[in-house]
Amino acid sequence: MPTRETAPIRVLAVDDDVRFCELLADTLVGCSVATVANEADALARVQAFDFDVVLTDLNLGGPGGIALCQRIAERDPELPVIVITGFGSIETAVAAMRAGAYDFVTKPVEIDALRFTIGRAAGVRALRREVRMLRERVRDEPQTGIIGESVPTLRLLDRVTRVAASDAPVLLRGESGVGKELVARAIHLQSRRARGPWIAVNVAALPPALVEAELFGHTRGAFTGATERRVGLFLSAQGGSLLLDEIGELPIELQPKLLRALEERVIRPVGGDHDVPFDARVIAATNRDLEAAVEAGDFREDLFFRLSVLDLEVPPLRARGRDILLLGQHFLQRFASAAGKDVRTIGPELAQRLLDYPWPGNVRELRNAIDRAVTLCGGSELQVPDVPGRIRDYTRSDVLVVSHNPSELVPMEVVEQRYILRVLEAVGDNKTLAAKVLGLGRKTLYRKLERYGAMARGERTPRLTGGSDGDNDEST
Question: Which pLDDT tens digit goes with each residue over 351-365?
Answer without folding.
Answer: 989 998 999 899 999
